[in-house]
Amino acid sequence: MKFHAEAIDLGTRAPTVILNAADAEELGVNPVDRIQIHWNGETHIGIVEVTDEIVAEGTLGVTRRLGYIDGDVEVTHAPKPGSVHYIRKKLDGIELEADEFETIVRDIDDNRLSDIELTAYVTGTYSEGLSFEETKYLTEAMTDVGDVIEWNDDVIADKHSIGGVAGNRVTPIVVPIVAAAGVTIPKTSSRAVTSPAGTADTMEVFCDVAFDADEIKSIVGRTNGCLVWGGAVNISPVDDKIIRAENPLSLDPPGQVIASVLSKKQSAGSTHVVIDVPYGEGAKVESLASARELATDFKQVGDHLGMAIECTITRGEQPIGHGIGPILEARDVLDVLNGGGPTSLRLKSLRLADILLECCDVDADAREILDSGRALDKFREIVAAQNGDPDVTVEDLVPGEETLDVRADRDGVVTHLDNRLISDIARRAGAPTDNGAGIELDVAIGEPVSADDRLFTVHAEQASKLADAESLVDKSEPIRVRDRGEALVERL
Amino acid sequence: MKFHAEAIDLGTRAPTVILNAADAEELGVNPVDRIQIHWNGETHIGIVEVTDEIVAEGTLGVTRRLGYIDGDVEVTHAPKPGSVHYIRKKLDGIELEADEFETIVRDIDDNRLSDIELTAYVTGTYSEGLSFEETKYLTEAMTDVGDVIEWNDDVIADKHSIGGVAGNRVTPIVVPIVAAAGVTIPKTSSRAVTSPAGTADTMEVFCDVAFDADEIKSIVGRTNGCLVWGGAVNISPVDDKIIRAENPLSLDPPGQVIASVLSKKQSAGSTHVVIDVPYGEGAKVESLASARELATDFKQVGDHLGMAIECTITRGEQPIGHGIGPILEARDVLDVLNGGGPTSLRLKSLRLADILLECCDVDADAREILDSGRALDKFREIVAAQNGDPDVTVEDLVPGEETLDVRADRDGVVTHLDNRLISDIARRAGAPTDNGAGIELDVAIGEPVSADDRLFTVHAEQASKLADAESLVDKSEPIRVRDRGEALVERL
Asked: How many A/B residue pairs have CB atoms within 8 Å?
């Protein structure tokens, strides 16, 4: 059937084309069906959406991804892409083979799948699970897509946390310790998606974080380490597309998590990696048993790929550090590097650094490196190499000046800190976009408090956002204080 | 955060709003997140999509479903709808309760779910299955949404086929037989979605099919029966929305099929229903065991709802009747009503009519009603009541004049007719939109043929569509002819 193609200024992930309802009926296609567009001697695939008004009969609306198509085209039916059959197979509970994962990953990378098909893939891997073999195939397929960074060193150290714990900004402390011990550690991190800050957001308080692969190599060549944003490097780009379908339902299939993390590490050229699996109420992994299982699978898939993986299983039922939000976390980091700071953040960072050094077979003591000031010096070197001010002090890092103090309404003991609620409040206050916004915690689980003691302070840069955060504080109980007598046995 | 709302001429099922990427970041929302739009003293929910260009910063693009919102609005975060939690629960393998299905069905009906969430629901019910209790709850929830038609009779007969077999146009034969026996049978049918014709498409060859509930009552009051399109009546409207997410992956969770069919029958006021479950290679249900299981569940859920259900399990590995496509099927129907026609269509229609009459406890003989001409008279009455020409003859029904004869390339036996390929060829030829397009079959499985005997004829109304159909015929083997010697044991 012949059409006249016209550009529609609409950005979609999939190569969407828009047909008038009458034309769609005439052509015999339904929404989400695929068509072949023959134009200029080439054939392109479009995914159909149907409209009554936005395009007239005879017109094929091409959205931005196909926007170069213009003028007269011939349209015919197109077969479904191969991955649709494999997704269906997965939903039928049948294990997929290596080449089938390759096809799916390639189709996701090329945005050839509609939201419906992509979601069916994600829920299929969630409901049916991924076997050890499947996780391996998926990891390899995800590694094969996108760029790979190559290094000359035999040992490239790396770390990762599977997340879900507020604060927990150990990376900007671990990296300078390890780099100061002479180990190459080119760390790429993410920005926040649903949390109040990612490591990249916190580091951006100090310096630039967006560098391409060559720039990263140059920084690491000078300092042994870096603390940059992974999104500026095209390694394992499929991951972000899969996350889009996972987020609305908070789905995190364990096999997918392993494939996402290890494909990124493999593409980044990492050889020795510590993976932190925090567990506990409100964290991504709730039970010790699930954390152990995930850690075991991480090690085994890593083995298969030729990476040395160490996993740490840590308590994740409350935030690590005092600050939550880019600037507040940056202050904690600088405090710890200066020899002070929150104990929880200092101790966790030291332990992770020691395990990573041991995994790399390097005889060095993290505490000695930190307390001697060598980690701070290394951090300043890295900040300078990333175009930041190496002489930055805690006083330079000013949190949002709109504040709300939240206080205990009775004497008692802190029995519960809700990671998710605390993150939500910090986001409402403006984190991570307003980098001074967030929460400063005064207490931890098990601490005694008196009535009217401050539990935490909300910081915001804008009064309206502080009000938005306050409305959530008012209707929830992010920090629970109970009388000593009912601390252990709580009555509902 | 304050915005200026502007209409975007884009039709979406969900209440989509479009934000500039910078505003989305500022507000802290991701694609598919929900926002509350405070406008004019009311609060509306929008699902976020993010663009770089289509709307400027400070503008909230409202698509057609929210198009009435205009001017200054205040935007805040909105919680996820309740059903998202229940969908997640289903994906976690936990059975859902009655009120949870009610919430999901209501949210689907109100278009409150994004494609991602709706697909997660469909794949969840597919992967995890629905228990008998769950199927019951879902059926009740789907019945509660939309209109209900009430009748004064104690017996309201109905029939349904779960489909997947080409041709198979038994309904316009069964309904007049049953109506002629004095039983009320107000039959609503669907149009084709992925097939070359639905019963509504075939009936439209004879008369109008779009009537509202009052008009249906008036037609049935005069004739005892009707043959109308269900889409014009608002019964169980959720079904079409669920089908949208099922089609791209051809998912048909059995519990969902039962709920879809029985909620429609319940809403239509039906009390006695025959459900035909065709099974066989290429049909929707492939094995006899699955067909029996589905039939048993249909009966039990029907029992619970107070309906008398009879199920027939029929062979579905090849088309029923000669014609495929609206006019070609209409010719078969009229031939059978005239006492002739394809044997397969005549015998299946008689058997279904007898079972339905017996189910309604009516002592009548379908063959006698058909052969006496009373069924044909009743059919003409119904056609007249639906504004058609009661004196229509087979000669008036002219199939598409662009034709292609497909012939056997050797002597042998027909071993296989591919329902799906035959449907695809008929659709490429233009069915159901071009109502004269389709396929006329000359052979059935097991029949001996000689080289150059005609196997089938493709009819089209447009030469370009015939060419499109021919290209599929050329590269496939919709009808397999094998030498007698290899008919039983075929060598690959």
From this structure: 128
